[in-house]
Amino acid sequence: MPELPEVESIKLQLQKYLVGHKIINIEIRNPKYELEKDKVLNAKIKSIRRFAKVLAIDLSSGYSIVIHIKLTGQLIYRGPNLPKVSTISQKVTGGVPGKHTHVIFKLDHGGFLYYNDVRRFGWIKVIKTAEVETSGFVGKLGPEPFGSAQGKPFTYEYFQGVLAKTKRAVKVVLMDQSKMGGVGNIYANDALWLAGINPKKESKKLGNEEIKKLYGAIHQVLKEGVKYGGASELAFVTPDGQEGSYQNYTLAYGKEGTLCPRPACRQIGVKFTKYFLSGRGTYVCPNCQV
Ligand SMILES: [Zn+2]
Predict the structure, then answer these.
(1) Per-residue pLDDT, 87
(2) Residue 103, beta-bridge partner list
(3) What is the pTM of this model?
(4) Which of 56, 57, 60, 76 is the most buried (most CB within 10 A)?
(5) Residue 1: its pLDDT value, please?
(6) Ligand 1 center to residue 287 CA distance, Å?
(7) Same domain, 127 and 58
């Protein structure tokens, strides 16, 4: 599922293509994505915000279009201002508009924003802008790295407090969106490797040094993720129709059977292993993540 860096990459492009433009028509092609058109039509797009893995398109009408793309949702923009080479990735199954296009927003400058979703787990809701941060799904999110528009900063003290209270495996806690927003499986795996921590370790047993390393590692891997435009697994593409490239730069994720790059591990030929923890693929170096 797309995580903080992937959704941030979408946000940055939507800011570029949509802000300042009016939504002049909406075509809903699938009843699951029915939305209150009267709150959206002819409104100008004022800003795009991200809350962990959720996007909010804020409108001049006082309402926001809130979108969670979940596993396979895609927001594809076609229209003015796109880079010259703007071929669409093969990951956009059926193209746009295509058989997996469920909503089409038409903009006043001749641009279109398409919502595609093969599995249809994603959702779109229209919520009062003033209530986006406190209600529904977004209201239940924990603080997130890089600060948060919800006014709940992800401080070191907060992180330490969360870990001290639970016996759950540290990796499971990192991915618990109610405790901290935005980190999913790819970045949890990479942050734990970078910090040299066993994903299965009981959270409350982590020492201060380990927590410090992990806190720094989480920020570092998410920053790398944003730098590479996210990781394109499954269906992730940015609104220009391009894929991200973080999948080529992962530290531990997807590395089973390859040598751990830490010199001490490489020297003795230690390879990453893989197992499932709470149903999610977990990649670990048995030498430096003990
Ligand atoms: Zn290692």
Answers:
(1) 83
(2) 28, 115
(3) 0.93
(4) 57
(5) 81
(6) 5
(7) yes
Domain residue limits at 278: 156-284
Task: Enter the DSSP assignment of 88.
Answer: P
**Is 280 one of the annotated active-site residues of the chain?**
yes
Q: Is 148 inside any structural domain?
A: no
Contacts of 166 (CB under 8 A, 6+ apart): 173, 203, 204
14, 110: one domain? yes
Question: Is residue 130 one of the residues assigned to a domain?
Answer: yes
Give the pLDDT score at 147. Answer: 67
| CA 263 to ligand 1 center in whole angstroms | 8
Blockwise average pLDDT, block size 10, the chain, 290 residues: 93 97 98 96 97 96 97 96 84 95 97 97 97 91 78 91 98 96 96 98 98 98 96 92 96 98 97 97 97
Note the residue count of the chain. Answer: 290
Q: What is the DSSP letter of 271?
A: B
Interval between CA 201 and ligand 1 midpoint (Å): 16
Structural tokens at position 96:
């746009």
> Are 207 and 234 members of one domain?
yes
Asked whether 171 and 277 are in contact (CB, 8 A), the reply is yes
Whole-number Å distance between alpha carbons of 37 and 233: 32
